Amino acid sequence: MVSSARDSSAGAPSLINWDLAASTAARLAPPGPELSSGEIGKAVENLRFNADISVPYVHDITGLEAARDLRDSHVLVVDRASWSKANTQSFAVMLQPALKKMLDNRSGVAMTPAAAATSGAITGAQLGAVLSFLSSKVLGQYDPFAALAPDSKVPPGGRLLLVAPNIISVERELNVHPDDFRLWVCLHEQTHRVQFAAAPWLRHHMLDEIEKLSGNLLGNMDTLVERASAAAKSLRDRNPSEKTPGRGAILDILQNPEEKASLSHITAVMSLLEGHANVVMDAVDASIVPSVRTIRQRFNDRGKDRGVVEKFIRNLLGLDAKMRQYTDGAKFVREVVAVAGMEGFNRVWEAAEHLPTEEEIHNSKLWLERMGL
């Protein structure tokens, strides 16, 4: 993996202290629900069970043969600190090319070891603060990237993380049946695992696109700080109750066409992945998840009572934009399936050229026409 003080792949000072990011997130994360050791053990066992039994349902709904054999990846039930640690490992893989580019661009600028350590500590602490907030919000996550790190012990296909304290907190908050809720969540997260198994090229395609976007942003450090400050000020001055469309603060940072094109493509892909997982999650009926209607209604209503501070942070991080991705992507999937069937929709996993554009996500007819469907 990437060490805290140096970029192990390049032998150069690291721009982010990854270990500090993980430890900061663990220290700042709010406590989870109170559980005895026995309750924790039962919850972990139950989540693993629901993760296992959800896979055949994903296969039945999607028709993707990849759901028959997922042995190249692992399911891990984790706490908030472990989720944060896992994400520092994943981020290190995703950002390594862009960070190396930054270091290469600075090759003529002298930086003492002390200055490098200070810079890495500042960015590490900032990333840790962001992860601490997110670590209490995420229910689950499929991570296809950490397996690509040097000396990684993650299976080649990646890992699925189920964040036990958050799942338990939400099921208690919603007052829904725990077993039903856990299966419902697992259906969504296992779909992501199946997506990457069905499209083995997708992981590297996304890494390439992330490298383009981060490379453009980080490669122009002279204006990035100024643009980021302006974006933060824009969010600070915005009325918290205002439902402003957009992708969050990052949209205000982007300026040139290459940056905007990269974000547009990543947005389209993420909308597809999240929307498809939501369609699978919502395709189950009471015969599989008896209280599914109650869960859907209460889960969708839970965001209405967020406080001003949380709304600001969610806007800054683009989390509400992510929720819109669920809606936009699900609409696209449903419209395509209604016309071409699930088999026709599954052509999207055959090649990168079959991925929908952001315009096609909002107008499925364009994708259907391009695919000859």
Explain briefly what this protein structure is:
The protein is mainly α and 373 residues long. It has helices at 18-28, 37-62, 80-105, 113-134, 164-174, 178-198, 202-219, 221-237, 249-253, 257-283, 292-301, 308-317, 319-345, 358-362, 364-370; strands at residues 6-7, 12-13, 74-78, 140-143, 159-163. The strands form two sheets. It has a three-stranded mixed β-sheet, sandwiched between helices.
Structural account:
The protein has 373 residues and is mostly helical. The protein has one domain. It contains 15 helices and 5 strands. It has helices at 18-28, 37-62, 80-105, 113-134, 164-174, 178-198, 202-219, 221-237, 249-253, 257-283, 292-301, 308-317, 319-345, 358-362, 364-370, and strands spanning 6-7, 12-13, 74-78, 140-143, 159-163. Strands 3-5-4 form a 3-stranded mixed sheet, with helices on both faces. It has a two-stranded antiparallel ribbon with strand order 1-2. A hairpin with a 4-residue loop joins strand 1 (6-7) and strand 2 (12-13). The longest helix is centred in the C-terminal third of the chain and has 27 residues, at 257-283. Mean pLDDT is 81; it is low at 1-13, 221-225 and 238-251.
